[in-house]
């Protein structure tokens, strides 16, 4: 008798955000993976009309480094976590993981914010 198990890894970024409600308009991910990765933006402040993004499936790269520019689904939050889930060899490059945010309702430009910044995503 043998038992086969598939380990699942989950990596959660620090919550990123700013003053008031925010919107994420673009995500840039640099990664490598032998299987797909599921990426979801989770509103850390759920319950106050905040909502995260729908799951995005990042394709396998055959273990080669790849960079994707993604448009997430509708979202509105004060603080947002990014969760990466995978069950095979994968790497998400911290410096290549960016979210472009702006204040909710602003006509200004989206500003890049590192998902794994030591300052909690504020710069």
How is this structure best described in words?
By secondary structure, the protein is mostly beta strands. Helices cover 0% and strands 49% of the residues. The chain has no helices and nine strands. Strands 1, 2, 3, 4, 5, 6, 7, 8 and 9 form a nine-stranded antiparallel sheet that branches. Strand 8 (98-103) and strand 9 (111-114) form a beta hairpin. It is globular and about 55 Å long. The protein starts with 8 loop residues before the first strand and ends in a 9-residue tail after the last strand.
Summary keywords:
49% strand; globular; mainly beta; nine-stranded antiparallel sheet; Jelly Rolls; 123 residues
Q: How many DSSP helices?
A: 0
Q: What is the CATH C-level name? A: Mainly Beta
- The figure for the number of domains is 1
User: What form results from the Cα inertia axes?
Assistant: globular
CATH topology: Jelly Rolls
Gyration radius, in Å? 15 Å
- Structural class label: mainly beta
The main sheet comes to: 9 strands, antiparallel
Shape-level CATH architecture = Sandwich
Question: Percent of residues in beta strands?
Answer: over 45%
Mean pLDDT value: 89
N- and C-termini, Cα separation: 53 Å
Helix content: under 10%
């Amino acid at each position: 008798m043998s038992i086969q198990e598939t380990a699942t890894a989950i990596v959660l970024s620090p919550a990123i955000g700013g003053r008031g409600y925010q919107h994420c308009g673009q995500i840039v991910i640099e990664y490598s993976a032998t299987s797909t990765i599921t990426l979801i933006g989770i509103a850390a402040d759920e319950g106050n009309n905040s909502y995260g993004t729908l799951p995005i499936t990042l394709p396998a790269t055959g273990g080669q480094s790849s960079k994707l520019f993604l448009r997430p689904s509708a979202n509105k939050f004060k603080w947002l976590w990014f969760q990466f889930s995978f069950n095979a060899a994968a790497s998400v490059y911290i410096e290549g993981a960016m979210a472009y945010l702006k204040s909710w309702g602003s006509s200004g430009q989206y500003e890049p914010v590192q998902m794994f910044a030591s300052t909690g995503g504020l710069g």
